[in-house]
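for the recovery benchmark. tokens below, seq after
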């Protein structure tokens, strides 16, 4: 299969903010058919499709059940924005399985859940990650960042920058791994921020199966409710 860069004809990303969360602000997103939904973590198990209720869910802690169900809830709403009705997002191991003709990504903290869904006619894959602004310690930052990444881009504190780089690398992995199957650790990828619009580019440190796909992608950063949120589209 040929791998081409994500389309650059910028359109408005369809968005929905549930539970009185604020609308998100991004630069221009280079896709014509994608939707992002955010919501708070809550007890949404009743909203799961039967096919999403696998046996192992019964062994989850109450918090884990809420996070899983809340993630599926926002995924359903994102699919509805594109397809007109919600559809199930099942699992293959730990990976979500999206409806035909769509790709997507789900992320959550203990407080919020986020889902991004796109048409496979526009994107080969998408990744997103949400992280608390103070979640990444100096010790972890040193472990995940290259020396060139250690200095914050203009407008970000050291604490914010560590969380952004952590989240951006997670988003790159989540967009690319389902396509290529190559494991990309934090030190396998380098992030470069465009300070003018909070977009970012990524590249693999060494040439590998994922290199061209990563280089062709584009990422975006925004913040809300004490979290950083990153997207990566390929």
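predicted aa per position
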């Amino acid at each position: 299969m040929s791998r081409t860069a994500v389309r650059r004809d910028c359109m408005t990303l369809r968005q929905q903010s549930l539970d009185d969360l604020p609308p998100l602000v991004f630069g221009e997103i280079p896709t014509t058919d994608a939707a992002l939904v955010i919501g708070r973590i809550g007890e949404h198990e009743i909203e799961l499709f039967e096919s999403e209720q696998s046996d192992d869910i019964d062994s989850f802690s109450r918090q884990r059940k809420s996070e899983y169900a809340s993630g599926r809830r926002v995924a359903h709403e994102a699919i509805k924005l594109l397809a007109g009705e919600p559809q199930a997002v099942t699992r293959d191991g730990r990976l979500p399985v999206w409806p035909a003709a769509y790709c997507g990504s789900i992320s959550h903290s203990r407080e919020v859940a986020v889902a991004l869904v796109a048409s496979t006619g526009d994107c080969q894959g998408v990744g997103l990650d949400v992280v608390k602004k103070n979640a990444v310690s100096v010790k972890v930052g040193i472990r995940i960042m290259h020396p060139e990444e250690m200095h914050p881009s203009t407008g970000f504190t050291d604490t914010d920058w560590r969380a952004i780089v952590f989240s951006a690398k997670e988003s790159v992995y989540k967009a690319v791994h389902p396509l290529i199957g190559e494991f990309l650790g934090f030190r396998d990828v380098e992030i470069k921020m465009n300070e003018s619009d909070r977009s970012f580019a990524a590249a693999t440190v060494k040439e590998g199966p994922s290199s061209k796909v990563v280089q062709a992608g584009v990422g975006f950063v925004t913040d809300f409710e004490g979290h950083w949120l990153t997207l990566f589209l390929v």
